[in-house]
Structures are given as structure tokens and as C-alpha cells.
């Protein structure tokens, strides 16, 4: 059985031109196994159990003991489970501990500071390092709830880096930013390196998720996950993050839109970032742009991975929805309302739906930041009809304008005056009788003051 990492490596090497025999020797597996995974006959990480696992009854006990004492010797723990009836050997027991990762990580015993850091050699075109940067206080007109995100990709050999702004760090936005940044960098390196972000791998184990394994296969790259507490393993992108935050984001103007801010970042990287001098063993000191010419990156697939991006927008008073630097029309009934824009990467159209998921309209996708207005003829006619129906020629009332009572008001006033001058006669059928003799009778016999 191949792990997801070996499966991704096999597909990447096969796309790079390796033969099945060479891949099998490189990964240490049989050629038939490699061929089955490349053809899609087998799924990585899925294995049929051979029989009943005798370790399962002792799993809770072992997990509880190692949770109480992470440094408990395996031999001591083995003696305890043997006393409870465990009938397998010590090597089988320790293999289960390693495979299930039952021994928890002890953070106080593994500090990150103070460790020596080695110089890591990065061959040209070998590695691209990726990381998210949280950028606080975006411009209010972006509507991004007080925080923006920037995915930064940096080529480890030359130091060239690019970034893409995103409203979220979920996997669809990550895939979109990966594709756009890769095209801006000029191509694909052989390896993509990430820290333990949950959209790429399981943070606890570092294993690639099945959804991101499909992304890696689509682009034909190998995925490398940094060990925990080893931030210096991707120091190139960490320095790029610091530069992006301090030299670009810190001075970004408030009046810029998202698309304008993205264009300003691209311009800054080309003018300032690529002009930086970096030491090199072969060329001494050279600019990032010169070193990037030796990367020899692979071409990017014609279409991005088909992830689906879903974002919420507020339609304008003209029943227009903004998306990636363009505006798309909706029916006039949704003006100033909340709608959802759904875009599948690689498709040439977008769907606009209600918050409940009902598709309202579909538009052909315009080029990003083109500034065009895509409108449906039916929406145009409906909007004009609604605007004309609400149109009026009456001017607003002036504060000092004289407006005397009209005929209707005067007629109502005359009715009120006539009612006030007519004497009131109690109706005979009301049943109300006023008799003063009753009050006199009630007053007799009452104590009075003398």
C-alpha cells in the first residue's frame, strides 16, 4: 500500500518523465503497485484489514497511561498490558504505538528556541515555500470584517515571491491563490512546502488530506510538510511575509479597491522585490530577477484545479454585484440585498444565488479587474420599469411653504362644530337613570361633625 505522500510523489515523478521502473526503485515498491496507483485502480491510504486487531481492546488503556505520563517507557507499558492479557510480542506492541501515534507530544520538553539552525541548500527549481499572512485593518470598502489574508509563495533558490489577497483561508481560496501565485511566479517547482495548515494536511500527524492530494496531483508537484516547531525550515517565505507586511501593507492607501491593491502588490514585487541583491555561490551577488532565470520551472496546467469559491456580496442600488473588479447584474428586486456569488475555477461563468441557494442568474465571467459591467437584457428592462414606476415629478415640501386647510379638512371641521353646538340628549334606551333621592337616603344616619 502507498501512503498519500508516496502516491503524490509517484504522480509527480511520472509527469516529470520518470519510468514506472525508476519510480518503483525510488519509492521502494513493486512496479505493479506503482502502475495500479497511477492508473487509479487503487486509492492511497486505504487498506483492507487482514483480520481482527488484537490491540484494539487495549487501546483505551494505553492512551490513558501515555496521557498521564508521556515519558513512560514502552517496556514498562508492555509489562502492564501483558498482565492484562496481551498475547503479542514486544516489537508488535511498539509498532502499534508508532503506527497509531499514541505517545503525545510533550511541549515543555521540546523548546524551539536556542537550537542551532543549519544552512539549507536549495537547488534551482526545487522548492516553492507557501504561507498565509494575516493583515489587520483592511479598507472598509472591502467589506472583509476587519482582517485580510495574503498567501505568499516564494521560490527557495532565487527568493522571488508573489502574493494573492483573499477574504478567507479556506481550501477553495487557498487553491485559487496557489494557482494565481504560481502563474505569477512563472511556473511550477518540483516541491511545494507548507507548514501544518489544516487545509493541506492533518495538523497533528502532518499527513496530506485526501482533498489536497487531488490538488497536488493536478499540478504534478510533491508536497513537503514542515516538522512542528521548525519555522526556519521555510525561512525564505517567512522573510517575504515580513517584507509584505512592513513595506507594502503598512503604506497601502485607504481608497484602493481589492483589485487595485493586488495590482499594486504585483508592481511592488516587480520593481522592488525582484531588484534585491542576494548572495550566490556561482554568481556572487546577483539580483533576484537574475537568479530567477535559472529556476527552470515547469509549465502550469492550462486550467486551474476545479475548486468552487463562494462569497457573499451586497447588490448596489443599480442591482449590480461586484466580483473581481467587474460588476454583474441581478433582478431589481434584489437591489441592496445580500446575494451569493459562486465561481468554479476554470469555468467561464459565475452563478449568483440567494442566501438559501436558489440560482438567480448566470453570467459569463469577464477578465479580472477589467472594470466592465456585465448586464442581462431582461435585468436592464426590469430595472428601467421599476425606476420609472417609482418616478414622480412632485417637488419636495419647503419648510416655509404655506399650505392652508383643504376642502376635506374644512368639511370635517364643520361637522365637529355642529356636533359641539347641539345639546346632548340622553337616549331613552340607554337604561341610565339619575335619582338624587337615593343619595339622600344613603346620607341619613351617617355620623356628622358637630
Automatic annotation (TrEMBL):
Residues 120-295 form the Integrase catalytic domain. This is Transposase. PROSITE patterns: HTH_IS21, INTEGRASE. The keyword DNA-binding applies. One of its GO terms (biological process) is DNA integration. Belongs to the transposase IS21/IS408/IS1162 family. NCBIfam families: transpos_IS21. Pfam families: Mu-transpos_C_2, Terminase_5. Residues 394-432 are annotated as: Disordered. One of its GO terms (molecular function) is DNA binding. InterPro entries: ATPase_terminase-su_N, HTH_IS21_transposase_type, Integrase_cat-core, IstA-like_C, RNaseH-like_sf, RNaseH_sf. It comes from Actinopolymorpha pittospori. Residues 5-66 form the HTH IS21-type domain. Keywords: DNA recombination, DNA-binding, Transposition.
